[in-house]
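Subject: design request, 88 residues
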């Protein structure tokens, strides 16, 4: 994984929210659409960015595509960034 791509992928609140949701449990794209009240075309762009950065992978299960977090350590990066941003 390229660190630059990882940080670029983490530069969007929606993508961070998707990572956090997928970290709790593997979800399919349709479940993310419902949970976030957004349509398929809107969710596909952040999913593609996260996949291209190597943060998530899509696993086909019949007609569904399940989203899996490849490395849970990315949550540590998010947590650290949130702690740094809270300091004043």
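Subject: RE: design request

Done. Sequence follows.
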């Amino acid at each position: 994984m390229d660190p630059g791509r990882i940080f670029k992928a983490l530069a969007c609140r929606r993508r961070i929210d998707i990572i956090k949701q997928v970290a709790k449990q593997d979800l399919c794209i349709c479940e993310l659409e419902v949970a976030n009240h957004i349509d398929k075309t809107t969710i596909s762009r952040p999913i593609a960015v996260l996949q291209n950065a190597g943060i998530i992978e899509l696993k086909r299960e019949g007609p569904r595509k399940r989203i899996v977090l490849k490395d849970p350590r990315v949550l540590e990066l998010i947590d650290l960034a949130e702690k740094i941003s809270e300091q004043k």
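The first helix runs from residue 3 to 9.
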